[in-house]
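Sequence only, no structure available. Ideas?
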Amino acid sequence: MTGSLIVNADDWGRDAETTARICECVQAGAVSSVSAMVFMEDSARAATLARERGIDAGLHLNLTTTFSASACPRGLVERQEKISRYLRRGRIAAVAVHPGLRRAFEYVVAAQVDEFRRLYGAAPERIDGHHHAHLCANVRRQRLLPPGTLVRRNFSFQAGEKSVWNRWYRQAIDRGLARRHRLEDFFFSLTPLEPAGRLGRIASLARQFAVEVATHPARPEEHRFLQGGEIFRRIGDVPIVPHSLVLARGRAAGIDR
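Reply:
I predicted one. Tokens follow.
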């Protein structure tokens, strides 16, 4: 994939305030794509808004925060809460498959993919995870994400930022994901916002590589940074593009699975 800088806002549809703050950043041109939560209190309205305004949306798979939509099926809520309790136990939940929750994981993931399809009129072409839970062992080893989708990789770190073991483990997961899914080349969080040169260095990678920067405009400091235009001063002349452009380039180059 050729160079691209994607600024993606997570939690689209979580609640009306979160959707509104993200929408302001989209209108300012500082956010190019959103990750949509389903079965949440503002999911349906946010989906209508995205379709009307042509906002690029993928699925923000939620395995950790209780579904808040009033009409959410009880059985789905109960299964997701069991998964959430397990994932909150600590790091072991991310690396070890829980055999007793295999069917619950399968049900909850499939229900969210189906609900996204219902709300947005098409299956999600890309998937990431709330609290990055899409990378937990059950989801990966059960192969619950549709093949060929663009899936968010682990955070990218330079040598010295994390231990050798930590970086090796993350790279091993990414290599496994790449056998079945499409990945962008680098993935970073918008924060920390300082030092000022950090975001410029990230943007410089996007001249040659596909780079995603994740943000949460519900946080006041990130909303001000994006909506107020500071991001443009930090990244210079590097354009911000949607995920859909990266996917289109992949299809044009014959990168499909």
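The CA atoms of residues 22 and 35 lie 10 Å apart.
Hope that gets you unstuck.
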